[in-house]
Design brief:
This protein has 253 residues and is an alpha+beta fold. The chain has six helices and ten strands; from the N terminus they run ααββββααββββααββ. The strands form two sheets. Strands 1, 2, 3, 4, 5, 6, 7 and 8 form an eight-stranded mixed β-sheet that branches. The chain has a two-stranded antiparallel ribbon with strand order 9-10.
């Protein structure tokens, strides 16, 4: 039924559930037309009646796309900011994410592939050659909060969370996303708008602990190939298959 709603009917529906539609299109708020398009036309979110009020439900996938830099520190891709055709810049500092359309609720893996194609301009072939999904990292989480872009409507974010590692940073097709050096980059998103991306450090105290332990015993972690360091970290800290212990001034595994 919602697919048959006109913009006027949508506005009336919001008002009937105590949403002040006059606040849309002001400040950081979306226009009513944009909100209507997302819910009714594009089906990127749904509206549910909760205790007499409206709640917006957004299903999405949050992706930690990761690399290791020259010092073997983990970094993940984040949106630093976005700019409009008029030159207005809005800071974001957000993880890579893709909103699931109604028909994609049970196909989030395919939605991730589409997202990389649309947002980073990386083909499915490049993704298959360079990306490795860490299936053990998967979690599902619900967060309910107010959104400044949708005034008067609480939002329930239902998110699939996954880590994807880039196994081959040297591939020439990845130069457009700042690799292999992990440099900031910008991608135009249409209508004069741009998104500015950065490879931000992943906060991981155990990883820093390992790097510090190696350095204390004369081992330069930057000399490790990224894959070898990741395997050592996994072996010692994740799967507890071995330990690193000082012995006569040297580190023994």
């Amino acid at each position: 039924e919602k697919l048959q709603m006109t913009l006027e009917q949508f506005s009336t529906f919001l008002s009937e559930h105590k949403v002040d539609v006059s606040k849309f299109g002001k400040g950081a708020a979306k226009t009513l037309q944009d909100f209507y398009a997302a819910v009714v036309e594009e089906r990127k979110s749904t509206l549910e009646v909760v205790e007499g009020g409206l709640e917006r439900v957004v299903n999405l996938v949050r992706i930690s796309l990761r690399i290791r830099d020259s010092d073997n520190h983990l970094r993940e891709l984040r949106i630093a900011s976005q700019s409009t055709a008029g030159g207005e810049v809005r800071s974001r500092d957000q993880k890579f994410a893709v909103v699931l359309r109604s028909l994609e609720q049970n196909q989030w893996q395919e939605a991730v592939e589409r997202c990389f194609q649309e947002k980073l301009q990386l083909s499915a072939k490049v993704q298959k050659a360079c990306f490795v999904t860490d299936n053990e990292s998967y979690t599902f989480k619900e967060d309910r909060s107010a959104s400044e872009t949708i005034p008067g409507v609480m939002t329930n974010y239902r998110s699939h969370n996954i880590v994807i590692n880039i196994k081959d940073q040297e591939q020439k097709e990845l130069k457009k996303i700042g690799l292999p050096g992990g440099e900031d980059f910008t991608i135009e998103t249409g209508a004069g708008q741009k998104k500015h991306w950065t490879w931000a450090a992943v906060v991981n105290n155990k990883e820093e602990e390992l790097i510090s332990l190696l350095q204390q015993h004369g081992v330069d972690s930057s000399e490790f190939p990224a894959r070898s360091f990741a395997e050592l970290y996994d072996e010692v800290y994740e799967r507890s298959l071995s330990t690193l212990e000082p012995h006569n001034g040297e580190l023994v595994r």
